[in-house]
Amino acid sequence: MRNTGDLTATDPSPPPGKKTRARGPKDKTPAPDRGDTVQSVDRAVTILELLARDGTAGVTALAHELGVHKSTASRLLAALESRSLVEQVEERGKYRLGVGILRLAGATNARLDVVQEARPVCRRLANATGETVNVVILSGGAALYIDQIAGPSTLSSYNWVGQHIPLHATSNGKVLLSELSRSEVDAVLGELTAYTPATITDREAFLTELATVRHQGYAVAADELDVGLTALAAPIHNAHGEVIASVSVSGPSFRIDAARLAELVPLVTGAGDEISAALGWLAPERRAAPLPDRTPVRG
Predict the structure, then answer these.
(1) For position 217, what pLDDT does the model report?
(2) How many other β-carbons are positioned within 10 Å of the β-carbon of residue 132?
(3) Can you give the pLDDT at residue 207?
């Protein structure tokens, strides 16, 4: 039995390389060159770094810094501008960083905030339960591990941070999907692959499961991803009450039976509420039993 903490046994393979378009006898368009593409990306990033350093810069100055023709610099700026990563200032020909940079930075800061606020709570939860504690966020069509704390009863010390896991076969995935609308779930959720005989593979049955999770405030996955592995997860809310992450406890099923799950529910949901409070969320009611040796978490 693998103690993967709601994780698949193998890493997902990297996406295949981009295929070039088939060209007929009348198509004279040259095939894309990988070296040119990488060079263009490098130059675009350099433009962002130069604007971060200097504040504003014109096409001529940027072209000089890059060692390219003005037309090349203009094309790179146009591509960045189309994504709002740069914008023109009132003085025509001058550029500065755009609001798209703030959006990207904000996404990173939000993730760092969750990890920072969750870490001390997760350490106490791991010590209280003896099991592995994970913090997970929604990332495209999968759940992404962003932090992990191993409890004293954990046999495996492998760190799964950065790994993607299937949504439908895990307690974390169920929590992350539980507050989404039907259309949002359909957009995110792919094929319901069977990993074990206990995996929910019927879409309507899975939607019913999400309704249960939403009502009770936590999710359980017993032997659904890996036979012999059980996990319980609870939501982490932001200041607006949106579910932005989940916190879970996972371990071998022989240790986490029905009686043990009943003991873990208030601990895990309490941890989720405490992390959420540190992020600015005011819970309508507290379901939680306090964790041992709880110290105040900065709000």
Answers:
(1) 94
(2) 27
(3) 94
Closest CA to 44 of 9, 106, 7, 95: 95
Determine if the pTM surpasses 0.85.
no
Pick the residue with more confidence: 297 or 32? 32
Instruction: Report how far residue 17's alpha carbon sits from residue 34's, in angstroms, rounded to the nearest whole number.
Output: 10
Q: Retrieve residue 115's tokens.
A: 């990890």
Question: Which domains are assigned to the chain?
Answer: 34-97 (1.10.10.10), 104-278 (3.30.450.40)
CA neighbor of 45 nearest in space, from 94, 15, 79, 14: 79
Listed as own residue / partner, the contacts of 118-121 with beta carbons closer than 8 Å and 24 or more positions apart are: 118/147, 118/236, 118/245, 118/247, 118/275, 119/147, 119/149, 120/295, 120/297, 121/247, 121/271, 121/274, 121/275, 121/278, 121/291, 121/297
Whole-number average pLDDT of the chain:
81
- Region for residue 95 given its phi and psi (left: phi exceeds 0; alpha: psi -120 to 50; beta: otherwise): beta
Strand order in the sheet with 229-237: 164-165, 142-149, 132-139, 243-252, 229-237, 219-222
The residue ranking higher by pLDDT, 84 or 232, is: 232
DSSP annotation of 257 reads -
Helix axes 99-129, 258-278, angle to 10 degrees: 140
What is the reported pLDDT for 152?
Answer: 82
What residue ranges in the chain does DSSP mark as E strands? 57-58, 86-88, 94-97, 132-139, 142-149, 164-165, 219-222, 229-237, 243-252
